[in-house]
Amino acid sequence: MQRRVSAGVRAGAGVAGALLLLTACSGGEDGDGVTVGGKGEAGAPQVTVTPGNGSGQAHPEQGVTVRVTGGTIEQVTLTRKGKPVEGRLSQDRTSWQSRTLRPGTQYQVSAVAKSPKGKSTSVQSTFTTMKAPVALNITDVTPMQGEKVGVGMPIIVTFNRPVEDKRAVEQALEVKSTKPATGAWYWTAPNQVIFRTKNGAYWQANQTVTLRARLAGVKAGKRTYGVNDVARRFTIGDAHVARVSTRTKRLVATSNGQRVKSWPISAGKGGRVVNGVDTFLTTSGIHLTMGKENPAIMTSEWMGVDPKDKKNGGYREVIPWAVRISNSGEYVHSMAATMWAQGRQNVSHGCVNSPPAYAKWFYNWSYRGDIVIITGSARRLEWNNGWSYYQMSWNRWVKGSALDREVTTS
Q1: N or C terminus: which one in the chain shows less Cβ crowding within 10 Å?
Q2: Candidates 3.40.190.10, 2.40.40.20, 2.40.440.10, 2.30.110.10; correct CATH number of 240-379?
Q3: Stretch 374-395: mean pLDDT, rounded?
């Protein structure tokens, strides 16, 4: 139910006769609004602002609504601490709706409407949104602000708690790029959602990508509200693709489609089967580079063998120039000790052994999110082994979106 206030407005063509400060009219927790003007005011338009002036428990997810009868909206200004808050004017200019609002925050609204005969009504309102009983925050975004990344780079958003209303939260996530791309979000966990581009398309090289999470005021579950917006901007570098064949035992690196380097490698030797999986085989599939370590400490502890137990294959190696490509311990890295086998025989525990000079070059050349395509192995890379999200079919990935849709980023 709207609260109505009658007030005389004298106005000539295009000139407001009075500015009505409605401090005596307050809305309640139910989102009641305040109305000014109408038929009794000599033909001036009627303006309704919701929530009403003085409200201290406005619902953040409802935002601010301004409606006009008997005229059209000339201007609406919504501010928080003097800074404007975005909103959208309807095509017929009879209503205006803001975005969601920050919980526990005071806002000011100013609206002006004009009748067809040029009479005006002005209204101002001040209100405060309710505090969030339970706060939803973004605790991490990958990649980092300003980072230059590869064309396969996913955007990984992690929240401080499980998200109940995934549709509402996903609706608040916007990805823009200076060159067009098709992508989609996929919820990998109740508190994590990941954006990637369509299979085989990737990001176009040398451009800027921006994530805007308009989370403030989004109702993410029972008594749970987003409390802050988050923005992240990063750049896509050259299109780096490394193709590794465990059969020919060679790596070929390309940049923007042009071959730049090639060298002999030694991949996983196989021979250790655990639960039907040969863990000593390098995985075949589309990997993404995830990070760099110089050096990386590699031990046999991952397979339950004490590094000191040499009889049962125990080892501890300090490995320079290591670029991670999965969560199962696979790297492209330097290995001087296996240069005799590189290009001839697969002898590693699953990594891509490379000559030191080439491994150093790859380490310095690569970005996080570069494509590493490995073929020839009988062991298939799982879609959730690191950032191997391109291993999932596009249709299935889109189904993992709470909104079940593709997104165009331009």
Answers
A1: N
A2: 2.40.440.10
A3: 98
Please report the pLDDT score of residue 37 as a whole number. Answer: 55
Domain with CATH 2.60.40.3780 in the chain: 3-128
Average pLDDT on 375-383 reads 98
Q: Which residues pair with 128 in a beta bridge?
A: 106
Contacts for 115 with CB less than 8 Å, ≥ 6 apart: 43, 44, 45, 70, 71
Across the strands, what pairs with 234? Answer: 209
Backbone φ and ψ for 66, nearest 5 degrees, come out as: -120, 125
> Helices (DSSP H) in 25-131: which residue ranges?
none
CATH topology of domain 3-128: Immunoglobulin-like (2.60.40)
Please confirm whether the linkage preceding 143 is cis (ω < 30° from 0): yes
- Tokens representing 266? 């030694």
DSSP letters for 253-303: EEETTEEEEEEE-B-B----EETTEETTSPPBEEEE--EEESSEEEEGGGG
pTM for the model stands at 0.88
Place of tokens 């879609």: 383
Q: Which CATH number fits domain 134-237+394-408: 2.30.110.10, 1.20.120.1220, 2.60.40.3710, 3.60.20.40?
A: 2.60.40.3710
